[in-house]
Amino acid sequence: MSMNFDRPVDDEIIEKIKNVFGEPAAHDRKTFIFDRMAEIHQSEIKEIANSAKQVATVEVNGEGDIKTMADGTRYQVTPQGWRKLGSGDA
Q1: Are 19 and 38 in contact (CB under 8 A)?
Q2: Given a cut of 60, is residue 90 above it in pLDDT?
Q3: CB-based burial of residue 50 (10 Å sphere; 0-12 exposed, 13-18 middle, 19+ buried)?
Q4: d(Cα 43, Cα 80) in Å, to the nearest integer?
Q5: CA–CA separation, 48 vs 84, rounded Å?
Q6: Distance between CA 34 and CA 25 in Å, rounded?
Q7: pLDDT at 14
Q8: Taking the chain, what is the end-to-end CA distance rounded to the nearest angstrom?
Q9: Residue range 58-67: average pLDDT?
Q10: CA 46 to CA 10: how far, in whole Å?
Q11: What is the per-residue DSSP string for 67-82?
């Protein structure tokens, strides 16, 4: 699962995200990836988005999906969770 924002979020929003979804496998303040699929409640997403004053997009990612962080670091979903890709991977 991943959560995405257009602009970086502050520490207060990061704490809200952690309280709802747990510790992310990785994040860059705009993209958050999670190894465990949390139960998603629209009211919680709305609260996070309203607090961040921007749209929050939640994606259910499947095996093989790749997310790229702001610094170019890429992560891919595996059966064991998100795996950081090296420069020669996928």
Answers
A1: no
A2: no
A3: exposed
A4: 29
A5: 26
A6: 5
A7: 98
A8: 19
A9: 95
A10: 17
A11: EE-TTS-EEEEETTEE
Interval 2-41: pLDDT, tens = 999 999 999 999 999 999 999 999 999 999 999 987 688 9
Contact 88, 80 (CB under 8 A): no
* Residue 43, C-beta contacts closer than 8 angstroms, at least 6 positions apart: none
Q: Residue ranges of the alpha helices (H) in 22-76?
A: 42-52
CA–CA separation, 73 and 76 (whole Å) = 10
Joined together, the tokens standing for residue 36 give: 């465990």
CB contact set of 58 (below 8 Å; sequence gap of 6+): 1, 2, 3, 4, 40, 45
Question: Residue 86 — very low, low, confident or very high, per pLDDT cuts 50/70/90?
Answer: confident
Strand partners, 68: 74
Instruction: Indicate the residue type of 64.
Output: G
